[in-house]
Write a structure and sequence with these properties.
Layout (H helix, E strand, L loop, with lengths): L11 E7 L3 E4 L4 E15 L2 E6 L3 E4 L5 E4 L4 E8 L8 H6 E3 L3 E2 L7 H11 L5 H16 L4 E3 L8 H12 L6 H8 L3 H11 L4 H19 L4 H8 L4 H12 L3 H7 L11
Antiparallel strand pairs: 1-7, 2-6, 3-4, 3-5, 3-6, 3-7, 5-9, 8-10
Helix pairs in contact: 2-3, 5-6, 7-8
Length: about 270
């Protein structure tokens, strides 16, 4: 399953996440993060804000977003298909918030309670957890100005790069092949990744592959050899080296220590 760009028809994930850091990515699901402790720098499209306790960010489908923790944070992250938001399905497809950053939780005491209940029921009852999600959305969106969906982002170079890499990271990818496919100079692409995405091209591709592999280790009993091959790594040696650098443990140990629902993204 590709976590960064896919049609997540049946997806509903709600988990605690700590010190989340991940470069710009996009997918067809809705993403909602709510901070319990600390602070987190969130970028959605070209807007960046540091959110704090009881503040949230709501990211509509196919919007480029990233996270950066510079100190420490603890939050609730919910990633879900628009189909789970019964009253807002068409809204997510046709509109977007004027601002994705929401501070309703600092004013409405029911919002922190609702997030806690959604997290609590995520394993006990998916339907109950989804019901709490819809209640949260009704609270948050009642204070949100909505605008028609902006279609200009599809022409943005950064958007096109992220979209293509997110769909093809499991395949052999090089700057040369990306330049040929998208008709850009490879040196220009390299500069875009460094300046816009805060990381190099190959670092970005490896992060997508590692996240995919880590999710497979957590949620399947697939053999590690099959996982690193499916993720797009050239060899087990390369996979093990990158995995150890990112997660500070071997893939086999990671599989043994992770609960079925754990951290969604690798730690920085």
């Amino acid at each position: 399953m590709q976590p960064f760009y896919e049609d997540k028809q049946d997806e509903f994930r709600c988990t605690l996440t700590r010190d989340i850091t991940f470069p710009a990515h996009l997918h067809s699901a809705v993403e909602l993060i709510y901070l319990l402790e600390g602070s987190l720098e969130v970028t959605v499209q070209n807007r960046t804000k540091r959110i704090r306790k009881d503040e949230a960010a709501l990211i509509f489908p196919d919007m480029v977003h990233s996270y950066l923790t510079t100190d420490a944070c603890l939050g609730i992250l919910c990633i879900f298909s628009p189909a789970y938001a019964r009253d807002y399905y068409h809204l997510f497809r046709k509109q977007q918030p004027e601002s994705p950053f929401l501070s309703s939780g600092t004013r409405n005491p029911d919002i922190p309670l609702a997030f806690g209940r959604m997290l609590r029921y995520r394993e006990l009852s998916l339907s109950v957890s989804a019901a709490w999600l819809n209640l949260i959305l009704s609270f948050l969106l009642s204070d949100t100005v909505l605008l028609p969906r902006d279609s200009t982002d599809s022409a943005d170079v950064g958007y096109r790069l992220i979209s293509y890499v997110s769909q093809h990271f499991q395949e052999p990818l090089t700057l040369d092949s990306l330049a040929r496919e998208l008709h850009f100079n490879k040196y220009y692409i390299s500069r875009v990744f460094t300046a816009r995405l805060r990381c190099g091209f190959y670092e970005y591709v490896n992060r997508l592959r590692l996240d995919y592999a880590a999710r497979q280790l957590r949620t399947t009993d697939q053999r590690i050899t099959a996982i690193w091959q499916d993720a797009g790594f050239e060899s087990q040696k390369t996979f093990n080296r990158n995995f150890l650098a990112c997660y500070h443990m071997t893939p086999s140990r990671y599989r043994k220590t992770q609960a079925p629902i754990g951290e969604v993204f690798p730690q920085s």
